[in-house]
Design a protein that fits this description.
Rossmann fold, 14 strands
Length: 321
């Protein structure tokens, strides 16, 4: 069910949400969090689709903020809010409100979002494309317990990575880091089996890949070795090589959803290591809303205190989960 509201207010949007829930026979609010998506018209459809798919695991109220640019000087003086309210089958397992702001309202989007937040529920803000330099100081970011950015969506991802390192605040995370969870899980399991001291390391990837750089920095911080960056044709991260006295531990994924794991003195084995959809990444981030300490360590890389080995599987798996 959909409601289109023109030149509306937060109060009218809340009334439309209640009306929609009553119409579909679910007057109670059974959602666990509020997801705020700050995007543009071009990326709104894909972002909303990803959030709705993630809501099957985390029922949520999704507020999509789209700041519309004025076409003429006269439009700049017009300040109003249009909204599209979706409930039921049109909004996954939660509720979706698409907010289009015009004029001065765009500069104060937090005042529109604040009355629509679920009471006593955590708030997550996601910038699928353009994100503020310091997410925690953004008016919308300040409302959230978790702030999600994506370095893949910018023209210079490695420069964005340095900006994220400089501005990191507990609660920040990035989908470039979330994409590494399967790699980190496999590396932790491989190191548990090999039980060897790591003497060298290399991460292979396409050029300017932020996930590869985060992975290399994480390995430097946790293993206490220098990690070589090796350029390949991609796509994304294609391999990790960890040197030991008995040979290399290798995870190789040149293409496709399958990778090959090689351990010293053991036969190679094939593992599933696909590139995950955005909805899966968002669902993972919503499973825990506390500070992502491992992301902070990965941002700092070799600057992190106490370079430690990952051979202890309990510590390694704790980092991954």
């Amino acid at each position: 069910m959909k409601f289109d509201l023109t030149d509306t207010t937060a109060s009218k949007i809340n009334k439309a949400l209640v009306q929609g829930r009553r119409a579909i026979g679910t007057p109670a609010v059974g959602m666990v969090l509020t997801m705020v998506i700050v995007t543009d018209e071009e990326n709104a459809y894909d972002s909303i689709k990803a959030a709705e798919e993630a809501s099957h695991e985390h029922p949520s109220r999704t507020l999509v903020v789209i700041k519309r640019h004025a076409r003429t000087p006269k439009d700049r003086t017009k300040s109003h809010l249009d909204a599209e309210v979706r409930v039921g089958a049109d909004a996954g397992t939660g509720e979706t409100v698409v907010l289009r702001t015009y004029g001065e309202v765009s500069d104060h989007a937090d005042s529109v979002v604040l009355p629509l937040l679920l009471p006593d529920a955590p708030v997550v803000v996601w910038w699928p494309v353009d994100s503020p330099e310091v997410p925690a100081k953004d008016p919308l970011g300040a409302l959230a317990q978790r702030r999600i950015t994506d370095m893949y969506a910018v023209e210079t991802p490695l420069a964005a990575l340095e900006q994220r390192r400089a501005s990191y605040t507990p609660g920040d995370t990035d989908l470039a880091w979330t994409r590494l969870t399967p790699w980190r899980s496999m590396l932790a399991a491989a190191l548990d089996q090999a039980k060897e001291t790591i003497t060298s390391a290399a991460v292979e990837s396409e050029a300017d890949n932020p996930s590869a750089e985060l992975l290399a920095r994480w390995l430097e911080a946790r293993l206490g070795v220098s990690v070589e960056r090796v350029l390949t044709a991609g796509p994304v991260v294609t391999g990790v090589r960890l040197g030991t006295e008995k040979g290399e531990i290798v995870i190789d994924r040149p293409e496709g959803p399958l990778a090959t794991l090689t351990l010293p003195g053991q036969p190679s084995r094939t593992l599933a290591l696909k590139v995950r959809a955005t909805s899966e990444l968002i669902a993972e981030e919503l499973r825990r809303l506390d500070a992502d300490e491992m992301y902070a360590i990965a941002l700092r890389g070799g600057e992190s205190n106490g370079a430690q080995t990952l051979r202890n599987v309990h510590d390694a798996r704790k980092e991954v989960n």
